[in-house]
Design brief:
Elements (H helix, E strand, L loop, with lengths): L1 E5 L6 H5 L9 E4 L16 E2 L8 E3 L5 E5 L8 E5 L7 E2 H14 L3 E6 L11 H15 L1 H4 L6 E6 L1 H11 L21 E5 L13 H4 L7 H4 L13 E6 L8 H12 L4 E6 L18 H11 L11
Parallel strand pairs: 1-12, 6-8, 6-9, 9-10, 10-11, 11-12
Antiparallel strand pairs: 2-5, 3-4, 4-7, 5-8
């Protein structure tokens, strides 16, 4: 396990874009039977932001679902993407989708997660419930999508990073009663990728909007602080943060990385000097634009993304 302080270095964008193309429009999969979400607290249609930092962000979500971006030549690895937005919206257009498109271009089956939001009135556990359910559905349909059921990861950004970190460290906890036979499958992600994540619900890191929307959760500081739940079953993790992040302190990644180290869990932490927050795939020429290549190297070193791509 390694922590890196990354200097400002020019990266070649073309290296990140090589691979196999996405072949089709995304496949949409509802996460739950209609009876599970029948008592939705959401009124009206979904709303998509059209200005400022909220451009492309989705809120007022009643229909939890995945959009599957299928590569032309899948390499067996899949990644579920949970975008950020402070648990009051999800940055889909500028966050999740570009990452999904890049993953599909290198042979990874990518699933953009539309998870239910506590700010919309859903239970604070709803985002993690949706993450667990998405993992189980992909395992149940692995053959259909050319996925190895032992190579399914979670990638979370900001509040989506909190979702992914909780799902990764508390995968054995039953966050919801079984809805059907799919829920007999494992909810453990095989690896977790965290980009500028919110992690801890405890002081002094409890200043995020994500934390505000988790206030209704019982015992929130203990139950939803992933650094307290790392154990020998925790999957390997790849973390990226900028030291000048004004929204989620790099302390979030550091406290989780230290917990992973203490338990001997394979982990890598990349710290960039500049880049701020909510950079998604990374703007060319900035430090965060290095993360896709760094992640690819790490993932292949862990045995993921290595199968010879086969056409579907």
């Amino acid at each position: 396990m390694t922590a890196f302080r990354w200097p400002l270095t020019a990266m070649i964008a073309g290296l990140l874009l090589c691979g196999t193309a996405q072949a089709d429009a995304p496949v949409v999969i509802d996460l739950w039977p209609a009876t599970v979400t029948a008592a939705s607290p959401v009124n009206g249609p979904e709303r998509v932001g059209r200005e400022g930092s909220g451009t492309g962000a989705v809120r007022n979500i009643s229909r939890a679902r995945m959009e599957i971006f299928r590569p032309e030549r899948p390499n067996g690895t899949a990644v579920i993407i949970a975008g950020g937005g402070g648990y009051f919206r999800i940055q889909i257009g500028r966050g999740s989708v570009p990452v999904a498109q890049w993953l599909a271009s290198v042979g990874v089956t990518a699933a953009v997660l539309y998870y239910r939001l506590p700010a919309d009135g859903w239970d604070p556990a709803a985002p993690v419930q949706d993450g667990q359910r998405a993992l189980r559905i992909l395992r149940a349909r692995a053959d259909e999508f050319g996925i190895d059921p032992a190579q399914i990861g979670l990638l979370g950004m900001s509040a989506g990073g909190h979702l992914a970190a909780v799902a990764g460290t508390r995968h054995a906890h039953a966050f919801y009663p079984p809805a059907d036979a799919i829920d007999t499958l494992s909810a453990r992600p095989d690896f977790v990728v965290l980009l500028y994540p919110v992690v801890s619900m405890r002081p002094p890191l409890d200043t995020t909007r994500t934390r505000q929307h988790m206030d209704r959760a019982p015992d929130v500081e203990q139950a939803y602080s992933p650094e307290l739940h790392v154990d020998a079953s925790t999957p390997p993790m790849f973390l990226v943060h900028c030291l000048d992040d004004p929204i989620a302190s790099p302390g979030h990644s550091q406290v989780l990385f230290e917990a992973l180290q203490a338990q001997g869990i394979t982990a890598e932490l990349r710290l960039f000097d500049t880049g701020g927050h909510s950079w998604g795939l990374g703007r060319p020429g900035t430090e965060p634009a290095a993360w896709p290549l760094l992640f690819s190297r790490w993932a292949r070193g862990q045995g993921f993304m290595r199968r010879t791509p086969t056409p579907r």
